[in-house]
Structure formats: C-alpha cells, structure tokens
Amino acid sequence: MSKRRVFDIDFEPEADMASDTPAPADEPARRGPMAAAISENADALTERKSAEAAIRAENDRLAHEYVSLKKDGAIVARLPIDDVKMTKLTRDRGKGEDTEFNELKTSIRDIGLSNPIQVEDTGHGYELIQGYRRLAAYRSLYQQTGDKKFLTIPATLVARGEALENLYRRMVDENLVRRDISFAEMGQLASSYARETGVPLGDAIATLYASAGRQKRNYIAHFSTLMDLIGDKLTFPEAIPRSLGLKLIKGMEEYPRMRRHLGTVLDNHKPHNAAAELALLNKVLAPKTVDGPTGPSTSSKTTIRLNRRSGNVKVTGARGKIEVQMNKDFGAVDARKLEAGVRALLDQLGL
Fold first, then answer.
1. pLDDT per residue over 30-49, tens digit each?
2. CA–CA separation, 131 vs 175, rounded Å?
3. What is the three-state SS of the chain?
4. pLDDT of residue 69
5. Can you give the pTM of this predicted structure?
6. Mean pLDDT of 51-58
7. Are strands 126-130 and 84-85 parallel, antiparallel or unpaired?
C-alpha cells in the first residue's frame, strides 16, 4: 500500500547557497495589519497623554494666576445687585444727606460706571468692601428707570477668607481720599471696629488709619469719644467741624452735666437739618467757652421783677449767671424738683 503525500514544504536555501547580493538597505520590514494598528494606537495614546499633561499644567497655571489676581482685586465681573450684601462690615458712610448723590447717578446713567465696586466672594453671595454709594446709585437707578442694565454692577472680586482687618483697611483707605469724609464718620467706624474685634480704641484707630498722620488719628480718637457720648442724639454728626467737635469734648470734660444737657436740648428741639443742629450745639457750648476768669468782661445786665402768689421775685441775668431772689428757702426744696425747674428754664432759653 503506497503512502499518501499530504503537502510539500519548500525550504529556504542555506545561507551559503543564497545569492551573494545583499538586499537593499532601505527596504522596510514588512508588518502585518495587526502590528501596524497596535503601533499606531500606542503612538496616539502617547500623544494624547502628552497633550492632557500639557492641558493640566496650563489649567494649573491659570488657576494659580486667577487666585492671585482675585486676591489682588483684579478680577472684574458683573454681579446682580441683590447678591451684594452689607452685613459684614460697619460702613463709615453717615446717614445724613448726600448732596452729590444725584450727580453720581447722572454720571452713571450717562457714561456708565468707571470704577467698579469691590466685593468679597463668600461662597453663597458677595460682601461689599468698597463702593457703598455706587451700589446705592445702581439700586436707585433701577427703581427709578426699571432699566435691567442696572440690575447688575461691575465688581472686582476678592478671594474669600481675607482677614477682617484687611477688609476694613480696604474700605477705609479708599474713603480717606474722599474730601467729604467726616471725623464723626471715621470716629464712629473706629468705635464699631473696636467693639467687633475686642481691641482697645487706640489700637483700632492705629490699625484702620495707619496711613493717616498722628495728629489726624488724635482727632479721630476725640470724635470716637464724642460719638460714644452723644452720637445717638445727633442726626447730622457728619456736619460737625473738627474745631466744634474738639470743643464739645473739652466742654463735657470740664462740665460733666453738659452731656445730659446736650441730649435734652437735642431731644426737645429735634433739628431737621444740619445747620439747625450745629446752631444748637454752638448755643449750648458758647456760655461754657467764655465763662470764667479768662472770658471777656461785660457790664450788660438784665433785671426783671415778677409778682407771684408766693411773693415778689427779682430775676437778674448777667454774663455767666442767672440770679433769682425771693422770700423762699430754696435749700428746703426737693433736689429733684429744683433740678427739673432749672432744666425747664434752661430749655426754654435754648441753653
């Protein structure tokens, strides 16, 4: 029985039997389709990883740059006015009449806002640092015009978590350059900051007004004391000039009862404008500043006579005194009644 041949195998010739002519050096090695696909995919993955790494590095750089710019207050965005709150910082802007407010609104309406407000990003809204009047102007303009462009306001963003001291300094340093910022407003802010942080008033003033001169800080300290003593009785404290404020403090130091008298006069008269309030303060202060041995001498005197059921009364008014003479032992009068009567007399005289 013959053997069946399944297939033939052709063997390559032995090396010594091959042609002496070498194969061309530039002929590429042949690869199968699968090998080529694997190689191309590997190259693509390498390129993709390199690109992703470059993108991550660029994103990290931009993120660090954004945080740095935000800390410097150099990032500007348009924020809804209702998202800006004013609860974290005590404002140094008084509540009196702002005569230039309408001019500010007109400027914003006609040419826009040239100086953005500054806010701190709290994560759930924004806290105002600088720009109280500008924000108030936007809100007023929207109420008056209904124009939606006033619903958002340009603002520079400060990164969340900045120290309270720095936020106050940002607000204060901006307002120190305003010519209309009053000593009463600065003094009130210093007192509020001292209470909020628990530091002595002198340290609060040194921190907030570090860029101010020593003499100016001294004036601010006096007005802080003035506002603590009678600030709740004043309606237009920002109108008090420096010299009058210093005289009021000196007067209350020399005459302790002046504080109560000032409060009574302001409560009774309730001035409706700054000029009227200043007139009252000067009237209360005037006798105290000229009374005594160093005051100017005068011979003017007023004498009146009254007929009362209790007898005849002689009243003499001269510089520095009012004298009441009658047949009455005033030492036996209840001290509270005597004080009430004298207060009523002084109030009637506007003193």
1. 666 666 667 777 777 777 77
2. 9
3. CCCCCCCCCCCCCCHHHCCCCCCCCCCCCCCCHHHHHHHHHHHHHHHHHHHHHHHHHHHHHHHHHHHHHHHCCCEEEEEEHHHEECCCCCCCCCCCCCCCHHHHHHHHHHHCCCCCEEEEECCCCEEEEECHHHHHHHHHHHHHHCCHHHHEEEEEEECCCCCHHHHHHHHHHHHHCCCCCCHHHHHHHHHHHHHHHCCCHHHHHHHHCCCCCHHHHHHHHHHHHHHHHHHHHCCCHHHCCHHHHHHHHHHHHHCCCHHHHHHHHHHHHCCCCHHHHHHHHHHHHHHHHHCCCCCCCCCCEEEEEEEECCEEEEEEEECCEEEEECCCCHHHCCHHHHHHHHHHHHHHCCC
4. 57
5. 0.45
6. 73
7. parallel
Domain locations in the chain as residue ranges: 60-162, 182-292, 301-348
CA distance linking residue 249 with residue 245, whole number of Å: 6
- The position carrying tokens 């002689």 is 314
Max mean pLDDT among 52-66, 73-87, 168-182 falls in 73-87
Distance CA 136, CA 105 (A): 9
Q: Could you report the per-residue pLDDT of 198-219, keeping only the tens digit for each?
A: 888 888 888 888 777 888 889 9
Over the stretch 218-272, which tens digit does the pLDDT of each residue have?
Answer: 999 999 999 988 888 888 888 898 999 999 998 888 888 888 888 888 888 888 8
From the CA atom positions of the chain, what is the Rg in Å? 42
Read off the tokens for 132. 């109280």
Are 126 and 120 contacting, i.e. CB atoms less than 8 angstroms apart? yes
Predicted pLDDT of residue 111? 81
Residue with tokens 């009047």: 133
- What single letter denotes the amino acid at residue 132? Y
Q: Which residues contact 86 (CB under 8 A, 6 or more apart)?
A: 127, 128, 132, 135
CATH architecture of the domain with range 60-162: Alpha-Beta Complex (3.90)
